[in-house]
Amino acid sequence: xxxxxxxxxxxxxxxxxxxxxxxxxxxxxxxxxxxxxxxxxxxxxxxxxxxxxxxxxxxxxxxxxxxxxxxxxxxxxxxxxxxxxxxxxxxxxxxxxxxxxxxxxxxxxxxxxxxxxxxxxxxxxxxxxxxxxxxxxxxxxxxxxxxxxxxxxxxxxxxxxxxxxxxxxxx
Length: 171
Prior knowledge:
- It contains 8 helices and 6 strands.
- It is of the alpha/beta class and about 170 residues long.
- The longest helix has 13 residues.
């Protein structure tokens, strides 16, 4: 690869959300030009590409493998009203993986059509955080909470009571 210049002071001061918003408005050609500007723009483009791997506007898998390039979850999900599957699985093999927090889940917009939520391996999540998110997901049918050690049985019961269509809970 080609060396990318370090960030200039003016770009470093811009919040990642603003850089992400700028990148989201560009085309693929614009993105290829942006990665050559500086490392901040390169990280913003990488975050955009990881966050918006969307197939038919119905399934989203957020790449949370690079801590430097992670786009805020609420921003990545904004406007995806037809989303049916959301995969936020954390793999233990990823050396730089970023774990989600309850605060990140709280920032998620309501996803009325979401049917499947994969939170496997997100070990920082609590039962309360997952319950709050599930309350915003009226169509939720399946959730994977495997290796979410702070999500207890009582939280699963409350989620089942809150989400009438919830049929499968992996824990």
